[in-house]
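Hello again,

I reread your note about wanting to compare the complex against the isolated chains. To keep things tidy I'm splitting this into two emails, and this first one only covers the full assembly. Below are the input lines as submitted, including protein chains and any nucleic acid or small-molecule components. They are followed by the predicted structure of everything together. The single-chain runs will come separately.
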Amino acid sequence: MHFKKFIIIFALFVGFVMALTPGQAQNNSDRTSDLQLLARAINGEARGEPYEGQVAVGAVILNRVKDPRFPNSIAGVIYQPGAFTAVSDGQINVPIDPNSTVVKAAQDALNGWDPTYGCVYYWNPATATSKWIWSREIVTKIGKHYFGK
Amino acid sequence: MEYDEKEYILEKHEAHDSEHKRDRVPPGYYARNKAKNVVIVFLALTTLFGAYEFQLAVKLRRQLDAQYNRAFYEMTGYVQDIEVLLAKAMLTSSNEKAADILKDIWHRAELVSTNLGQLPIQQGALVNTQKFISQVGDYAKTLTSQNVKGKTLTQEQMDTIKNLHQLAVSLNDNLDKFHGELTAGTMTWANLAGEGTRLFAKNDVEIPMTISNIDGTFENMPTLIYDGPFSEHMTKQKALGLTGDKVTEEQAIENLGKLFGKENIRNIQKVSDNKNGVIDTYNFRFELEGKKEKSIAEADVSVVGGRVVWFLYNRDVGDVELDIDKAKEVGKQFLEKSGFKSMKDTYYTEQQGIATINYAYEQDGVIVYPDLIKVKVALDNGEIVGFESKGYLMSHRQRDIPKPAISMEEALQKVARKENIISSGLAIIPTNYGSELFCYEFKGKLDDQDFLVYINAMTGEEEDILLIINSDEGILTM
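Full-complex prediction:
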């Protein structure tokens, strides 16, 4: 009886370890354009947020590209180490439907809609661990995120 | 107690059983042994698996550190180059040589920026350093184009270069110290990224002194004003097109009602008062009774003047029923209804059944591109599903447009492919540093490639060339 319990525990442990190891990367779409990358970033960062909040996250990324304090390409900004959790936790690699809302939101951001008026930071006040981020000037609050300069 | 009893009974029971069996193997021996073996195998497997994973992690860490080191060494090399080049820029008396040196600075700054952006350094820790590098590059680029036009550097510009050089020297010193810590092993990239502590960290990992020293150099950097996109004046732009008194929240809602029809707006809520941005606004969320369905819409109304700055109405679009010409007309009608007169459609994109059309203001036959409004038209039923007027609100005013100093024919002589020009007109175009240029706009076609050339109507200089991209997704300029 005891051994069976052990076996079950070990099996669970092994399964747990396996689950923690990242699996084979999903088949990436052949389009690596800015729109696709931006849409994936929005999907990883703001899925479940109001539409405006998704556009806003896209706008922050584009505002960074234009800001001297950040890298000057969309890929450079998104993949800056530690800049976005969607990159650290792999959410950015989740494939998206070409007709999904995040693609529309990315398109609107690229077309110049910016609900944040030039913000380069956003954070979730409930989970943000950085003290520094609170020193930013808040411009707007959309859904779960604060947007600041 | 209970347990012991059970065991006892069980053992008794088994002992009794064994009497009927010939072999001496205790009962349950095989089953128990099998279970033991399975556990041993599992243990061995997990240990092996763990060891493999650990090795893999070490290998990946090494690869990652190698990438970080490469980026760091490249970056420091280019920063040293920039320091030397800035010193040389102060010593040359030749315009051509100065242009060469400045071009090199610009190029090196781009490379520093790319590498710096790859280092795993906490958010915000090196923003001022990055800004310094971006501005050095941008400033050098601006001076290069000035030199190319044959203008010598002014004393003021020389002083700025001297300042930038001093900052580059201290950046190099600080990078040296940082390099020392890296090679001594007192600092690792994993530490810098705050890895290994994240799981339990309540707050930030403290930014190491060496890093804050690097960035501290630039905290009180003098503001750089010049004709480039990273110039300080770009962050202090005012909304020239917003005039009038401050409006209340109720008035703002009323203005939205004028646009969509009061009866179509339900459950309107003010979500936020937007401050500190370029335009202060009320942000609203409401249900819009659209032609097709009721859906959530979001909109901003400016506090000053009560203008709708943008709105978005995200809904699925059905089969395309409208062509682009009809959509342009629908958009224009909407603009007129909203009080934007004299708007001319320019370019558009078409995606997922929605046309996004750009309209520019037209004054006395001159197209004013900075006064830009974008309208999204759903191509299934012609409904307006989006609107964005920040460009217009930031720059619109009645301009004193001068008489061109050169004639259309004179300007045409400046165009490289005169024979390919199809049409011409006058336009005001924006620069990437916030100013405007009054130009002749020539449209031409070369080997099926449509293009636009802008010749300054006052000086005759060629200011810009744009390619017009005709694709399934619309007409764009690049």
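For quick reference: Chain B touches chain A through 67 residues (CB under 8 Å).

B.
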